[in-house]
Amino acid sequence: MVKYFCSKTEIKSTWDHVVSAFWQRYPNPFSTHVLTEDVVYRELTANHRLLTRRLLMKTNRLPRWAERFFPSGMSRSVYIVEDSIVDPVNRSLTTYTWNLNHTKVMSVEERCVFHDSAEQPAATQLKREAWISSSIFGFSKPIQEFGLARFKSNQMKAMKGLEFALSNLQGETPQRLLRDTMKDASEKAKEAAKTLASAAASAPQKPRQYV
């Protein structure tokens, strides 16, 4: 089983501004968990599409129950591949991201599509999809629930970071950026963590090698 997430957001900035901000969104005060970003490949195709592959290193503080799934000494950092396609003819930006390590514990794949809003000429429509899975026997469902809650919280931070970059481009000071939604997502992540911690505490302690 895989947990699926889909959301649509209207960004009150033109597509050109959003694409410019996309490349300048790190560092920002809302994404301090993003440690590094490196461009490993870039190509301008004959039909004027810009193809880019980036490698990002991120870290997320692990809840106490998650420590049992990581062998001693294993890095807690997560390496993320981000492929993107900028199509100026059709005015779309499509991104694909997935984690390279810790995939047995949790695998997260995400696709985002930014394009001109059909209803608002000075706005951009964002469709975000995610697929979350886990291969930990006996714990896959609660881990996926936790992963979904954390993904929702992190995508709110990502939106805040993008709006921060847009504000910098436009010479504005960021005001309230999705504050209420961030609070709701954070609370859901905490609830999912409590559920998974309870399941882990009641499970048999037979040692296993998961990774």
TrEMBL record:
One of its GO terms (cellular component) is mitochondrial intermembrane space. InterPro entries: PRELI/MSF1_dom, Slowmo/Ups. Residues 181-211 are annotated as: Disordered. Residues 2-174 form the PRELI/MSF1 domain. Residues 181-193 have a biased composition (Basic and acidic residues). It holds the Pfam family PRELI. Residues 194-203 have a biased composition (Low complexity). This is PRELI domain containing 1. The gene is PRELID1.
